Amino acid sequence: MNNTCPKSSKCPIFQGGVLKRENSEKVYRNLYCNAGASKYETCMRYKISELIGKPAPLTVLPNCSKPIEDIIENME
Ligand code: SF4
User: Fold this and answer.
1) What's the 23 CA to ligand 1 centre distance in angstroms?
2) Which of the listed residues 1, 7, 11, 19 has the most CB atoms within 10 Å of its CB?
3) With a 6 A CB cut-off, is 56 part of the ligand 1 pocket?
């Protein structure tokens, strides 16, 4: 079974090199991206992409606690 998020090939957090602390990306990958559907489906970036079919802004991290509606509203 593939435990990796299906959005990983286009996701900057997964691809790496975008966050100031490189270790944070590794932590997110372990906690979300490579942790199976039960985890990556809780990632805020994943949820936004599923909902509106567009990638979330880079400022949105997997564990973002803002309401999803607010994030999407600010994108439009
Ligand atoms: S779990 Fe989230 S951060 Fe990781 S690849 Fe999927 S959308 Fe990107």
Assistant:
1) 15
2) 11
3) no
**Average pLDDT by stretches of 10, the chain with 76 residues:** 92 92 92 98 98 94 96 92
The amino acid occupying position 66 is K
Q: Do 18 and 25 form a contact (C-beta atoms < 8 A)?
A: yes
Contact 32, 62 (CB under 8 A): yes
Provide the residue type at 11 as one letter.
C
Residue nearest to atom 5 of ligand 1 (CA): 8
Let me know: does 38 contact 46? Beta carbons within 8 Å.
no
Residues across the chain: 76
Q: Are 4 and 34 in contact (CB under 8 A)?
A: yes
The model scores a pTM over 0.90: yes
